[in-house]
Design goal:
The protein is of the alpha/beta class. The protein has 2 domains: 218 residues, P-loop containing nucleotide triphosphate hydrolases (Rossmann fold, 3-Layer(aba) Sandwich), CATH 3.40.50.300; 61 residues, Alpha-Beta Plaits (2-Layer Sandwich), CATH 3.30.70. The chain is built from 11 helices and 15 strands. It has a 6-stranded mixed sheet with strand order 7-8-9-4-10-11, with helices on both faces. α4 packs across α5.
Length: 301
Amino acid sequence: MIKTKDLTKVYYKKTCVNHLNMDVEKGMIYGFLGPNGAGKSTSLKMILGLAKPTEGQVFLFGEEITHQNRLEKLKDIGALIESPSYYGHLSGRENLEIIQMLKECDPQEVDRVLEIVRLEKEQDKKVSQYSLGMKQRLGLAGALIGNPKLLILDEPTNGLDPAGIQEMRELIKFLAREFKMTILVSSHLLSEIDQLATHLGIIQNGEMIYQDSLRNLHRYSQQRLALKTIDLPKTIQILEKNNIPFEQERDAVLMQRLTDEAIGQLSCMLGKMNIGITRIEERQKSLEEIFLELTGKVVSL
């Protein structure tokens, strides 16, 4: 659905996006993650033709985008970049009718998208009177007019309260599930992407530093066992004697995850040596810790 090859953008001698290679396949909810200023919005603008790449190529639906075919390809894409645009003195419905006419779509599309984003009851209210969450839903409704195959959303939960964030998240999942849309959503919130996306691309200083399924990212988070006893030095001796790999912590030893049988055998060995076990617990790196390792810096999470 989307493929970029060495996509690069230089503004005033500053490289904002550096040889970005993105691959979004059909059916994905692709989370485009990175700290503020990492180059997410610039990348999306180049994909949509709103910014001209300094170098590199963009492919949509399997074809390279050129000046000649750009508008034809964009007909199958809905997008909400940065904040939604609207006429505050017009109603929500009137704003959508303008988009419907510009896209040359069936007028019934307005009713369809209003129902999807659950704005039917507020459709005749002036948009200047809308809450931030309602404005975001209106922007999403505008992107959905024409029933696009691909939806590109730039920070769709930005500025929303927890209830609004959850509502937007459920809407995006609904669109992917019910309408089989491929969705690219950018965010600086790792916790949001973790609850939403199937695949992930992490951008840092304009460069893609990770791209794979979210499931594979979780595999970085290897589970380990933390063992605490009343006599740590003797415990270490027993582990070394039995060739059990471990790392020493302040008051515990960390081991790779063991089978239940191996844990039982280790417990028996320690018991025979009169070494009491005070705690055995599983430990796992959080996604925030993994992200920190990948980016090398603390970012908004």
